[in-house]
Design brief:
By secondary structure, this protein is of the alpha+beta class. The chain has two domains: 91 residues, Serine Threonine Protein Phosphatase 5, Tetratricopeptide repeat, CATH 1.25.40; 168 residues, Immunoglobulins (Immunoglobulin-like). Helix content is 40%, strand content 16%. The chain has eight helices and eight strands, in the order ααααββββββββαααα. A five-stranded mixed β-sheet has the order 2-8-7-4-5, covered by helices on one side. It has a three-stranded antiparallel β-sheet with strand order 1-3-6, with no helix packed on it. β4 and β5 form a beta hairpin. The longest helix has 32 residues. It is globular. The termini are far apart.
Length: 306
């Protein structure tokens, strides 16, 4: 009886064995897949914990989590961006600076573009972007662009914005706007009836002040790039209950300049006399050396010309 019992057990076990023995390559591949799954789960957990601590303004703890995530994925854009920005919060002192942004490639060339014939000497259009050495990042399908227009010596004839897919001759969006009557910050939002920005693709934009419609060489203009990205861990964090200021901090920490700036600009319009909102706005712009425009008004622009 004993032998029959063990024989039946052996036969049952053999029934579940593969017809062909597993090779060492198959065993290693299985272990590799398992290890990748473990690393992915750990990376996600560390990023989520990092964003959660950032929202609590516990930056030192957040930094530790982001560093652990980066060890699992060396060079990961989201982890490295979070490390840069959280480190900046710590260095600047979170009690004095509510929000900061550190681009991957810092640097700004204020003289980019031409001065045009309707701007005063020493004045130029200032794009509200963190750097002109890399594309600003956004999560938005239809982002918003911000520009400071200085005092003009003569009234410009029009403003023009062009968004171009570098792989296409035709612009994704091109519009001419009525000129504003004062210096201040204007914004251009890509309409929802236009094609959405594709994830991972870079787009070029140009913003021009047309001083003479008959001679576009006299335009004053500035240009740059934007790319739409998607951070699943940030998206999960944003689904939780957050204030708008929390959202601005999370966007900045993850490296999404356009989203952070747009969130604060909307708050400035909604709560123009709120000193806390103004402090966040000033800190964000000061962190990327756009100090000249922190107190400039947000103008009601831009209305398309017909």
């Amino acid at each position: 009886m004993k032998y029959k019992f063990w024989a039946s057990c052996m036969l049952a076990a053999l029934a579940f064995l593969p017809l062909e023995p597993l090779s060492m390559t198959q065993v290693l591949a299985t272990e590799s897949v398992y290890q990748l799954a473990q690393n992915r789960a750990a990376y996600t957990q560390y990023m989520q914990l990092g964003y959660s601590e950032t929202k609590r303004r516990n930056y030192r703890k957040a930094l530790g989590y982001f560093q652990q995530a980066e060890r699992l994925r060396p060079g990961d854009r989201y982890a490295t961006a979070a490390i840069r920005n959280v480190t900046s919060y710590i260095q600047r002192g979170s009690a004095r600076n509510r929000i900061a942004f550190v681009p991957g490639k810092p640097g700004r060339v204020r003289s980019a573009g031409t001065r045009g014939s309707c701007l005063e000497i020493g004045q130029s259009i200032i794009p509200l972007t963190p750097t002109d050495k890399e594309a600003q990042r956004t999560t938005a399908e239809h982002p918003t662009f911000y520009f400071y227009i200085p005092q003009t010596s003569t009234k410009p004839e029009a403003l023009e914005f062009v968004l171009q897919d570098d792989n296409s001759i035709d612009p994704l969006y091109k519009e001419t706007f009525k000129p504003v009557g004062q210096n201040g910050i204007v914004s251009v939002t890509i309409p929802t009836n236009k094609s959405s920005l594709q994830i991972g693709k870079e787009y070029s934009w140009t913003f021009s002040m047309i001083c003479d419609l008959a001679n576009r060489d006299k335009d004053s203009y500035t240009e740059g790039k934007i790319v739409r990205s998607q951070d699943e861990n940030l998206a999960l964090q944003l689904k939780e209950p957050n204030t708008d200021l929390d959202r601005a901090v999370l966007f900045a920490t993850a490296g999404f300049w356009e989203d952070s700036l747009r969130t604060l600009a909307n708050l400035r319009r909604q709560r123009p006399n709120d000193p806390e909102v103004q402090k966040y706005w000033e800190d964000l712009l000061n962190s990327v050396d756009i100090k000249d425009v922190v107190n400039k008004p947000l103008l009601p622009c831009c209305t398309a010309q017909r």
